[in-house]
Amino acid sequence: MQYFTRKQFWLLGLIALLCVSAGFVVGYYSHITPSNSYMGIREQDTSYKFIHPLLAINRIDMSIPAPVYVPLLNKIKDFIASQKKVGSLDSASVYFVNYGQKTGSFALNEKEAYAPASMLKVVVMVAYLKKADSDPSILGTNLTYNPNVAEELQSIPFESPSTLVFGRSYTVESLIRSMIIDSDNGAMNLLISNIDPNYLNMVYRNLGLQVPSDNSLYMISAEDYSLFLRVLYNGTYLSDKNSEKALSILSQATYYDGLVAGVPSGTVVAHKYGEHVVGSGDQVTSVELHDCGFVYPAKDPYLLCVMTRGKNLAGLTETISGISKLVYGSVVQ
After folding, report:
1. Which of 67, 74, 227, 302 could pair covalently with 98 via S-S, beta carbons 3.0-4.6 A apart?
2. What are the b/e assignments for 11-44, b being 16+ CB within 10 Å?
3. How many domains is the chain built from?
4. What span, in angstroms and rounded, lies between the C-alpha atoms of 225 and 290?
5. CA–CA dist 213, 324 (Å, integer)
6. Residue 314 domain-assigned (yes or no)
7. Would you say residue 164 lies in a domain?
8. Residue 143: which H helix or E strand, with range?
9. What is the pLDDT of residues 76-99, one digit of tens each?
10. What pTM did the predictor assign?
11. Which string of b and e fits 184-214 if b means at least 16 CB within 10 Å?
12. Is 64 a domain residue?
């Protein structure tokens, strides 16, 4: 029989304690790992036999921010609270991912749904560029602007008029540029009327998103909308050439009051805004304003998506530009 000294018993007890502690730590982190783990979003096209293309990596729980961005997130929360206090804002959602040296992400109220309005023009562009991957000639196809398209535009309340001219033909690529850069609704309607709806809807299905219905107002969250932009930056849905083309066109957008207003002049921002107005006649009861895109400082390109709802456009514009300013300052400094 082997006998142990008091010192040996003490050592064995310490080892046992360490083992128990290690087991607790492993068990604890095993428990929280799922909330910090990642899942893939894969293309839903069933024509493939052997592959299932990966389009984006999605964090399951964006409510746990990267530690380096906790101070920034707190500043954004305080700013949003101040905007609500003065009556400029009813609701705001923020989705942020840094793709540069300071890699990290955070989100706030990212699952609340809004009416994306003109931001869905990005989906139309992506659908056409997807077709152009296999048939580049489509971008040079001429389409003629006709009264039927214009009448559809005029039937929508608060819709902005188009700069297109009746009877004039435009190439698909020039229409895409007008639709995105100037947010021209006539260009969008003409493009939609000349593409198979199933092909357009495939963009939503491939990203695992709900397909718009003619019978109800389409709603989407900041988290879900970000997918349309992330697959462009990652080059995972379109060819590299057309992914680059899409972001280049987005970088020429002439809307300067949202994300762009919050960064120094000359900073490249590839983005799309959307404005949704609810009301009757001249009476506006609610306004939504959103701006989502990539900001390109010298070292740390990042995705920022801000979606807002309130009573007046000026207050929402101030909210988006204010959040953009806070984010840029944190990332660059």
Report:
1. 302
2. eeeeeeeeeeeeeeeeeeeeeeeeeeeeeebbbe
3. 1
4. 11
5. 32
6. yes
7. no
8. strand 142-144
9. 999 999 999 998 899 999 999 998
10. 0.83
11. bbbbbbbbbeeeeeeebebbbebbebeebee
12. yes
